[in-house]
Amino acid sequence: MAGMVYTSIDAEKLTTAEFYGIALRDLASEHDNVVALTADLAKSTKIAAFAKEYPERLINVGIAEQNMFGVAAGMAKNGFVPYTSTFSIFACARSLDQVHTDICYQNVPVKILASHAGTSFGQAGSTHHAIIDLAVARSLPHMTVMCPCDGAEAYKLVLASYDIPGPVYIRINRGFDAVVWDGGPEAVDFQWDKAATMMDGDDITFIGIGAGVYQAIQAARMLKHDAGVNARVLNMHTLKPIDKEAIQKAVDETGKIVTIEDHVIQGGLGSAVAEVVAEYGKPCTLKMLGHDNDFSTIGLQEDLLTIAGIDSNSIEKAAAKLLGISLKTVDNWNDEY
Fold it and tell me: Does the pTM of the predicted model rise above 0.85?
């Protein structure tokens, strides 16, 4: 897990999008029916590795996302497994009719790689933030919904998506995600449809998705240091189908759950967990952290996570409130500079 040493030069090669491009190339080397479609965003969505090796299997439809999904559906009906690449907000909002009717209604194996998710495209502005896409995608019949926490996990989920029947939505960020799985894709140890336990604990459970996983791990470490609390951290990399057993186990063994997502809490991870808890019918205290019925402002993602209350400090404070404990504070400190 986290602990890998890397430089700013290395970081560009560790993005979820970079790993997606490599995974797509590797899939194509094994399966002749894998094709890639882009809406004039091949460079932005990092599929250069695929394009270099298999230029004849890359289709650029131009700036026409809706058309791209229609073309992909037609190709899927004829034996291909298309991987479509575009920004998350274009996939879930601009092209919803085509995704809903051409892909999901026909239940064809189109794999949607939705990049620049959450607030990871922070400086582009609120219209380009994708904070509603998980809610949209998981409500679509037949759709499998995934969201990796880092590049190594993105690689493994993209490979797994090939064998999943029907459409798959994989949500990835724009830029660098902090390394969670130390050691690259070979170190990623999970089943695609089961939550990964990143840290064990029986006092409280953090359930994170995407960028929220790293923040949850950091918050768990802080809680241990500041208050001796043992927090369990679940990485819910697959939102649909959701791992009900892991959530029910958290209810039984910790009784308190905090969900963390760079997404509105209405319809996303928090809502999905709440549905499982309600159906289970056992007592549990649940706190959802995310964007609460509002758009995010413009800025760097790390600042936007703090503003939305989904950074590690905010998670620790929310957990302390649920647990009814006080955190250590240091009043007499001096800046080392």
Answer: yes
